[in-house]
Fold:
Amino acid sequence: MTPPVTAAAPAPTRSRRPGAADGGGPRARLGRVFQHGGWFVAPFLLVYALFLVWPLVSGLWYSLNETNLAGINTEFIGLGNYREAFGDGEMWDALGNTLRFTAMITPLIVVTAFGLALLAHNIKRGKWFWRLAFFAPFLLPSAVLAELWRWLYEPDFGLLNNTLNHRVPWLLEGDWAMFSMVLATLWWTVGFSFLLYLAALQSIPNHLYEAAALDGAGPLKRMWHITVPMVRTITGLILVLQILASLQVFDQIFLINEGGPNNETRPVVQYIIQQGFTGYRIGYASAISYIVFLLIVVVTLARLWLVRNREENIR
Amino acid sequence: MSALPLAQRIRRNAGQIVLTSLGALLAALWLVPFGWALSTSLKPEGDTQKLPLRWIQSNMNLDAYRSVLGDGNIPKWLVNSVIVSTGVTLLTVVVSALAAYGFARTDFRCRRVLFGITLAGIMVPGTVITAPLFANVRTMGLVDTYWGVILPQVSAPAMVFILYKFFQGVPRELEEAARIDGAGRWRIFGQIVLPLSRPVLAAVAIFTFIASWNNFMWPYLVTTDPDLATLPVGLATVQSSFGIRWAQLMAGALLAALPLLIVFVFFQRQIVRGVAHTGIAGQ
Structure:
């Protein structure tokens, strides 16, 4: 995309990229690089380079070293950290917990968000109230979420057990604890996907429904043949965002139960943090980070591939 | 409406009643945790663990709120959170808007390559770079400083992309007209493009603010000084020292939740639009 010609229009024979054709000293060249737009992007690029690109690159370097938090006693060990990680049962357990969490929460979020959005979209009165009710938990800091749910899950005095009149070991047994994390997370985060669906529903043209109704399609048929296909893109987006977020889950599990009982809910990010900050092994922590990163890249690329395929099919 | 046959109107109203009741039931279920926290926070400490549980009782009072606010820590963390979140939001909006405009509407060497690198950054999950980021921030001497908390949260390539998309849609004729009147790039940006972009800037600002206000991991890792703790970090670390004083915990939790709930009530429309926008931009 080329910008509009500048006020002092250059001769037509000149290259469209200012300064691309002629030489000059390094100083002059630098001046030309920034001549038009460089200064706009410079502040961002500086912050971006310092706090995203550099850590990304240095993390790769750390992962090839046996190193500690202070950066002293660094020793190049090649793929040693990776080899250790692949043989580390605790790493696999933590990764398994993360994947289990992801597999449980993702479909739940999609279905719940869609259901709530359908409801909120079709009720004519008090739209602001439904939005507020279902979205409000998303605004809570994770520490607050953790306190609320620890209190609800409390075995003796918790609201849940006393309402159900049954002593459910919410946070005390591994499988229950994972389910409890999923439940709290669903309550906490579904509002975001709910709003995405709500926006998508609003953008479906009404005449589609009217036409279908004239053809005698009932509400269920209309939903299945119009609504569901029309929100398919958003569904795909929610799926991927949810998987990516779940692979990085940490806050609520750490804060509610510290990954317990017996590390049975401990997610891989918590293991990374523990290795890096409690065990002072930045190199090993970085290596596991890169393994997670690889997973995330695979999910992202799979999505790009799917979207491209679909576009080609439509064509 | 009134032209519809009576039977159809009745059917439509009945549908609305069913939907509304279902909605009310679910909304009530959704709001239970807030309600229970409120109820607990109003009880005397000795009554929070009394069975059978009661939602309302006669001796409810504001003691828990008084002791939480009188403690001094929560107001201090609140100030820290305001400083950090405001700083992150202002810097992110300024830096991202400039960069987005630079990428969308100006030319300079390596623009495409640099933009590509920026887009690739959207894929990089924050948690993956946490450990090396901490090591680097430490070498910069920023551990236990406001800058150390704020600056790493400012590099938000996704926000640049959202604004980039928007700036691309601003009609070029406006800029051309201003240029003919002799305005430079910076004036065009400041006086024509920015005012047009108010809604999307608001969305970016609100989202950055929410994310930063609720960010737990980074402030938790980069500050050890309790005087620098943000609200989420402070609340999380104090849980154990409060022991099982649930009334105070719940009062603190509700106080911490309040600022963003107020923000939401006031900016509901922008937030809803912002979610839609962010979502669509992410495709």
Observations:
- Chain B is about 75% helix and 0% strand.
